[in-house]
Amino acid sequence: MNQRKKLSVAVGVVVSGLAIAASAHAATYVVSANGNGLNKNQQSSIEAAGGTITANLPQVGIAIVESDNPDFATAAAAIAGLTTTRDIQLEFDIPQDLSLVGEEIGPDFANPPASGEDDIRFDLQWGAGAIDVAGAWNAGYRGQGATIAVLDSGVACLHPDIAPNLDLDRSTSFVPGEGVCRALVSGFNHGTHVAGIAAAADNGIGTIGVAPEARIIAVKVLSEVTGSGGFAGIIQGIVHATDAGANVINMSLGVRDGLAVGGKEVAELVNATKRAVQYARSQGTLVVASTGNDARNMDYDANVMAFPGGLPGVLAISATAPDAWGMNTERADLDLPASYSNHGRSEVAFAAPGGDFDSEVETLCVVAGVIQPCWVFDGVFAPGGYSISGTSVFASYSWAAGTSMAAPHVAGVAALIYGKHPGIKPAQVEAILRKSAEDLGEAGNDPFYGAGRVNAAAAVRD
User: Residue 344: which H helix or E strand, with range?
Assistant: First the structure.
């Protein structure tokens, strides 16, 4: 099977383009104030221009406005102290996954037994070994007291690896008409996979996340129906996650071919998102994102940025992978640069396991009793969603590959650090990650590995 076909089987969500947000009735606008928030006169002027403020975020001086007035932007431009930009949607694709069906979800799915790290699919998680999560766990650090917000496509709330750690009260959706919990339908769910990598419960079922005792806040900013998510949703998601008390925000999002930054509208929306990231950092929240999956060297094109990974204050994560790990699970090199990963010294903060499907080995391998073509095992194995058979609902698990899978490995390690050091600042967490990372590739800051591939055990050692 060639690389193109493999990637079509299981790569994870990839943002794939831009389109102006619109509906039959109203358009969405991001309004930025020069000060800390919209004053009463500005709010009244927006309403007089035909706008309805759907979200007021004085924390970052931004409001989200809807209007069915075709002349709203022109009218809003006359309001002193405000910059009004029509929202731009990021279109994304959800490829088919390569899945295994797990156990049937029963009435006790949210209260599974403690396992002592004997989850039946843990041996498929080469990424856990690559960053030595067991070393951190054995030292007593499992993320207790830390919270990870997953800004994504929602989660499978009933999945037995997600439910025990999911904080539904603090979870929410910023996708109109869609709830944060995935419907009970079969298929891969990107947000579930990402959340599971970071913080799947250690419960004797399926897999174990990097920080298996961390809490998960699911924040839906990408639609499963239309394949899109706007800047407005991402901005609201960052602010919500911060105010909800997340220690870490994970955004496994990336614009395919990069985000062109030459236009005024895009620049204004990017600046608005920067405000949200700066607010998160100021409140003690670390922001982690994927670099993107275009095999692009981000050092060489000033007109393109990774979004949101390229924003100031965001840790952008590149992906590593083995080659035919299933043939030699004890000695395989787990730290090869993934073939698709964006890179560049100006871009990459750290590297982490993201998986790859470019192996030329087509024979069958057996790992932990599972038989698959050898290249399959090079993907990252994690909760995938649901599998429905008649009236029965089963948990599914999926292999996927992408920088989307790398970012939550880092988010999980950051949660271990927050769990060890309550009240620690993002800059201090970043310093610990940098000090503890394994320096791979060129000495120092490497275009593929950044400051190095993260190491969970070393991160909690000091």
Answer: none
Return the DSSP state at 165.
G
pLDDT in tens, the chain (462 residues): 444 334 333 333 333 333 334 344 689 999 999 877 899 999 999 999 999 999 999 999 999 999 999 999 999 999 999 999 999 887 653 444 466 666 566 544 444 444 455 667 899 999 999 999 999 999 999 999 999 999 999 999 999 999 999 999 999 999 999 999 999 888 889 999 999 999 999 988 889 999 999 999 999 999 887 767 899 999 999 999 999 999 999 999 888 788 888 889 999 999 999 999 999 999 999 999 999 998 999 999 888 898 999 999 999 999 999 999 999 999 999 999 999 999 999 999 999 999 999 888 889 999 988 899 999 999 999 999 998 888 888 899 999 999 999 999 999 999 999 999 999 999 999 999 999 999 999 999 999 999 999 999 999 997
Residue 101 burial by Cβ neighbours in a 10 Å radius (0-12, 13-18, 19+)? middle
Indicate the burial class of 256 (C-beta count within 10 angstroms; 0-12, 13-18, 19 or more). middle
Catalytic residues: 152, 190, 404
CB-based contact 193:398 (threshold 8 Å): yes
Query: Which pTM value belongs to this model?
Result: 0.92
Mapping DSSP to helix (H, G, I), strand (E, B) and coil, where does residue 393 land?
Answer: strand
Distance CA 13, CA 189 (A): 9
Question: Is the distance from CB of 206 to CB of 102 less than 8 angstroms?
Answer: yes
CA torsion sign, 6 to 9 to 15 to 19?
positive
* Domains within the chain, CATH numbers bracketed: 22-86 (3.30.70), 96-459 (3.40.50.200)
